[in-house]
Amino acid sequence: MLPKEFADGQRRHVVRAERGYHAFVPPPLPPLLAWDQELISALSGADRALGRLAGAGRVLPNPHLLSQTLLRREAVVSSRIEGTQASLSDVVLYEASPETGHGDVREVFNYVQAIEHVLDPDRDRPLSLSLLGQAHRILLTGVRGNYATPGEFRRSPNWIGTPGCSLNDARFVPPPPERLWECLDPFEKYLHAQHQLPPLIAVACIHYQFEAIHPFVDGNGRLGRLLIVLLLAEWGLLPEPMLDLSVYLEPRRDEYYARLLAVSTEGDWAGWIRFFLAAVTHQAADAADRAQRLQELRDDLRGRVGSVGSALPGRLVEELFRRPATTITRAARHLGVTHRAARLNIAKLVAAGVLVEVPTRSRQKLFLAEEVLRVVEGRNPAVGRGQPPLP
Predict the structure, then answer these.
(1) Domain containing 335: what range?
(2) Do 364 and 328 touch, CB atoms closer than 8 A?
(3) What integer is the mean pLDDT of 321-334?
(4) Which of 100, 125, 185, 343 is deepest in the core (most CB within 10 A)?
(5) Interatomic CA distance for residues 89 and 95, integer angstroms
(6) Confidence band (pLDDT; 50, 70, 90) for 145?
(7) In sequence order, which residues have a C-beta less than 8 Å from that of residue 144 and are 6 or more positions away?
(8) Pair (267, 336) in one structural domain
């Protein structure tokens, strides 16, 4: 990384590390922003869209069930930005029957578990670097990146650039290890500060800052996007994790990376924040629409099984909006009934077209709620690795 690639005002944040290479040490938050009409309009639009999504979530009979599928979609696409090849159907089938999975699916499933951990109201730690370390450990344990000291902040340099590049010709080099904590300490303090900036602007700034610090050896991109989900819920901007922002970022990843880099090299906060707010506006509207369609589908599916003379099929339908794949064993555990009773109730859902049996090498029969996935993904949820990008 060369200091000459940074604008005059940003070059003072480029330092020479103990090992002799140049690195960028981002100044503490908050930045000084120029509030022009374009930025104000973008914030207003994002606030309105997020408010509509929050309102839609609050009036749903069980928003938690519906948010779970959207959360899994976020996990799939956020991981795809980093190069995984797994579909939402791959992930939900893996949750029901782990022997169906491959490496990429396990990686996405780790992301789901990391999100669920940080959003757990009974978690043992507050919003903090320690909590992010826990999420990092969950994210990388047992998958590629396991070499990268899961849960530990880095003690070695890392850098961003074309494959095979060195520290000297990297596009961006985050703070060297000896200066990492002078960045992380104020970062953690800012998470808890009384912000003068509007909440969505603060979230955008925090995401940039995390990516610029790059505190872990690997997994920083996914963890930085997980932090967005966490902050929206932690700060009460959404009642549930219903905003799958990565769906907007994935097809625009080049611009996404360029906007983040331009904050460091040019001090272009406005460009990054406008891009972030456009993503929030678009995905909030999309999520509100999908949540409404999921609710309509829930009512339809419950109606199909409502006349079978038992409440158990309806309870199974509810569970399918949280985890759209199941086995007989899993259904028996959820319903608190015998294996035979669970098999009979699944048969009722198959007869009603709610579930379809999926071919598998597993000893257990595996069933999928295809209509649920179709609403979430917006396409045919064909089973198999390497699905095409979402629209």
Answers:
(1) 309-377
(2) yes
(3) 93
(4) 100
(5) 10
(6) low
(7) 103, 107
(8) no
Could you tell me the CATH number of the domain that includes residue 49?
A: 1.10.3290.10
The 3-state DSSP class for residue 326 equals: strand
Task: Check residues 381 and 378 and name the one with the higher pLDDT.
Answer: 378
Higher pLDDT, 387 or 149: 149
Provide the β-strand partners of residue 326: 367
Burial of 162 (0-12, 13-18, 19+ CB in 10 A): exposed
Q: Cis bond leading into 30, ω under 30°? A: yes
Asked if the model's pLDDT at residue 380 lies above 90, the reply is no
Give the total number of structural domains in the chain.
2
Q: Are 157 and 172 in contact (CB under 8 A)?
A: no
Q: Is the pLDDT of residue 379 over 90?
A: no
Core vs surface per residue 328-337: b (16+ CB within 10 A) or e: bebbbebbee
Q: Which of 160, 156, 153 is nearest to 261 (CA)?
A: 160
Is 301 within a domain?
A: no
Say whether pLDDT at 386 is over 70. Answer: no
Residue 357: φ, ψ to 5°: -80, 135
State mean pLDDT over 136-151.
83
List CB contacts of 381: < 8 A, sequence separation 6 or more: 87, 88, 89, 368, 370, 373, 374
Mean per-residue pLDDT over the chain, rounded: 90
Does residue 216 share a domain with residue 329?
no
Give the model confidence (pLDDT) of 357-366 as tens digits.
998 877 789 9
How much is the pLDDT for 240? Answer: 86
- The alpha carbon torsion through 221, 225, 230, 236 (nearest 10 deg) reads 150
Output the six-digit token pair for 14: 């480029």
Distances (CA, A) of 165 to 114, 187, 240: 31, 29, 41
What is the per-residue pLDDT for 58? 82
